[in-house]
Amino acid sequence: MNNVFQYCGYFHKESFCNEDFMILLNILAKEHELFSSAVFDDVILMNNEGNFTKEGIEYLSSIDIDNENIFLKGGKTQFFEFGRKNIKYDWLQFSCWNNKNPDKINNEILDLLLSKEIEITFLFDYWYNFYQSNDDPQRYKQINIGKYDLTEQDIKNFGMPLYFNEDIQLYRIDISNNPGRERFLPGIKFIPAYKIWYGKEMQELFGKQKILDYPNAIYTKELENGVIEMQLMDDITKCDLPYNQEKQRDIVKYFEIEKLEVPKY
User: Fold this and answer.
1) CA dihedral 91, 96, 19, 226 (to 10 degrees)
2) What is the pLDDT of residue 114?
3) What are phi and psi of 124, to 5 degrees?
4) Which of 73, 86, 121 lies closest to 223, judged by CA?
5) pLDDT of residue 1
6) 8 A C-beta contact, residue 122 and residue 8
7) Do 219 and 138 touch, CB atoms closer than 8 A?
8) Could you write out the three-class secondary structure of 187-225?
9) Could you tell me if 128 and 245 are in contact, meaning their C-beta atoms sit under 8 angstroms apart?
């Protein structure tokens, strides 16, 4: 599968406005080849050059982001999502890549995101995160990686054990031992990702000095706006290799994430 990288972030409530999304989408279209000529609700947001159409500007300007979630999907792995309603934070995620620097977010995007009040944000390999964190058997059918029926033989062949979740009365894949899986904390996720940005609230939760002192990161640095940037792994395309998975286990243990974790369902 082609490499697809994902940015996922939690921000202080009301950090974003509709204009921010137009700026982000415009950069994603021009620099990361996303969303040009994609149709949303029968509206073409941008032309092939990555410029907004008149209808696209009207569409994005009219979204009530206090009461509507945004979900734009421009291809199999092109997506842009934002939510605010009924959650503690502004939540934003999108796919991103760049042919010249595939593991880097465009500086214009990063400047805009870092200008907001970050709680915690992540950059990671989309497919690796999917395999590590998704526990829905039906999703694996949809991406055509093999038959997945609820039989003992299929489970054995596929190598992914199922269990019956009593709370939701459905079968789920047991991902509890996956080192790179998402952990659900109260109102927020923690992902042992390729890169992590820690805002004020997470610095208070984990301890600012403890974050800066984490010994096994490629680097950790405090930015001018007070956010701490950490690169955990050496290569975003090699998260599945044993030495990087060991780092994922280590940082979860270091911050005692399992003591903070709450059930997904």
Assistant:
1) 60
2) 95
3) -155, 170
4) 121
5) 45
6) yes
7) no
8) CEEECCCCEEEECHHHHHHHCHHHHHCCCCCCEEEECCC
9) no
Residue range 196-217: mean pLDDT, rounded:
97
| The two structure tokens encoding residue 123 | 């950059």
How confident is the model over 100-138, as pLDDT tens digits?
Answer: 565 677 788 899 999 999 999 999 999 899 889 999 887
The tens digit of pLDDT for each residue in 241-258 reads 999 999 999 999 999 999
- Cα distance between residue 203 and residue 217, in whole Å: 16
Please determine, for residue 48, whether its predicted confidence score (pLDDT) is greater than 80: no
From the CB of residue 196, how many other CB atoms can be counted at a distance below 10 Å?
A: 24
Q: For the purposes of burial, counting CB atoms within 10 Å of the CB of 6, is it exposed (0-12), middle (13-18) or buried (19 or more)?
A: buried
pLDDT value, residue 119: 97
- Paired residues of 173 in beta bridges: 162
Show me where the domains of the chain are located.
5-131+183-237, 135-173
Determine whether 112 is exposed, middle or buried from the number of CB atoms within 10 Å of its CB (0-12, 13-18, 19+): middle
Structure tokens at 93: 């995620």
